[in-house]
Design brief:
With about 350 residues, this protein is mostly helical. It folds into two domains: about 5-70; about 125-345, no CATH class. The chain is about 75% helix and about 5% strand. The chain contains twelve helices and two strands; from the N terminus they run αβαβαααααααααα. It has a two-stranded parallel ribbon with strand order 1-2. It is elongated.
């Protein structure tokens, strides 16, 4: 704390080696605050440490509080330690902390598998109206943002390609660049990222709020499986709607490339369309659907998982929402890398 000049001078005098005895008197003191008590405690600590002879005369209340400050000795280990932790020990602790989370996520996956088995066997507690509502929320209502982002991304992809291809007079290959890029992977990635921020966060916030309000506990008490009733319809909705949104995003991305090709590069519209059809095999559409289905599952799992495992406070809901979005995007990136490697190995 910022001490006054007189207080710093007094502490310096008490700490001096030439001092063996000191007097402290304040009989006429009328008013004081906690800063005086802190100063007296610090001075007393220094005096006791140096075994000085102390003569202290204080007002009765201040003297009692000073004695109370030293009535109980400090607990060993209670003070903050400044010991630096070994980096290997720190990494080890973080790795060990991951194990319970992985185990819990595997248990969550097990509950999802049981819910799917209930659906297949006709014993599910999922309501069809919940499924249709979830499909409407993550499908039709997502069309505006998917339209905008995909169209702009197709424009950007075509423009970046045109910058290089026009130097060689190969403007027509912009059609193949945009078509393969959008249909194979970029359309699915754009939809996955948008769904993680829009739908995954919504699922985590909704289920987290239900967890805070003990609605999920109420469902379990009534004998209704929260996984059948809440998680399964959202998982099926994203699995079915994300591939359809990806096809729509592919069309919008190709339309963006078409705009650049015809308006900026002055290509013939039919020439651009024919080039897209000839340069883009249908297998890229299938690969894009595999990407998108995987991304839908990832977004649904992480959104519902963090919502179901949310704490019992408003702050926990915010943390669950943020974590769901981050984990969904990281999962999309990792899944993209894995599927890309598999496609290269299989020559797809």
């Amino acid at each position: 704390m910022p001490w006054p000049e007189e207080a710093r001078e007094a502490l310096h005098m008490v700490s001096a080696s030439s001092v063996s005895e000191f007097f402290l008197e304040s009989r006429e003191l009328v008013s004081w605050d906690s800063s005086l008590l802190v100063f007296l405690a610090q001075t007393t600590k220094i005096a006791k440490k140096r075994n000085l002879i102390m003569h202290v005369i204080l007002p009765h209340g201040l003297e009692r509080m000073l004695k109370l400050a030293f009535a109980v000795p400090p607990k060993t280990g209670a003070s903050r330690s400044t010991q630096r932790v070994n980096i290997f020990a720190s990494v080890g602790e973080r790795v060990l902390d991951i194990v319970p989370h992985v185990t819990d996520f595997l248990a969550f996956l097990g509950e999802i598998i049981f819910s799917i088995l209930h659906l297949v066997s006709g014993r599910t507690q999922m309501r069809s109206q919940d499924l249709f509502f979830a499909m409407h929320e993550c499908g039709i209502r997502a069309l505006p943002i998917i339209s905008l982002t995909s169209l702009l991304f197709g424009l950007i992809l075509a423009f970046v390609g045109a910058v290089q291809l026009t130097q060689f007079g190969a403007q027509i290959y912009v059609a193949g660049l945009v078509g393969i890029g959008m249909l194979r992977v970029m359309g699915a990635i754009m939809v996955g990222v948008v769904m993680s921020g829009r739908v995954g966060a919504s699922y985590a916030a909704l289920l987290g709020t239900m967890q805070v309000n003990e609605e999920i506990d109420a469902l379990s008490t009534l004998g209704i499986s929260p996984y059948d009733f809440l998680v399964l319809p959202r998982l099926l909705a994203l699995m079915s709607m994300v591939p359809l949104l990806t096809l729509y995003a592919d069309i919008m991305g190709v339309a963006g490339g078409f705009m650049v090709g015809t308006l900026m590069l002055h290509l013939n519209p039919m020439e651009y369309i024919n080039a897209t059809v000839n340069m883009v095999p249908f297998k890229h559409v299938i690969v894009g659907l595999v990407y998108s289905t995987t991304f839908g599952v990832i977004v649904a799992l992480f959104g519902c998982y963090h919502g179901m495992r949310c704490g019992r406070s408003a702050q926990a809901v915010g943390q669950a929402t943020t974590t769901a979005v981050v984990h969904s995007i990281v999962g999309i990136i990792v899944a993209t890398a894995v599927i890309t490697v598999l496609c290269n190995v299989l020559n797809v």
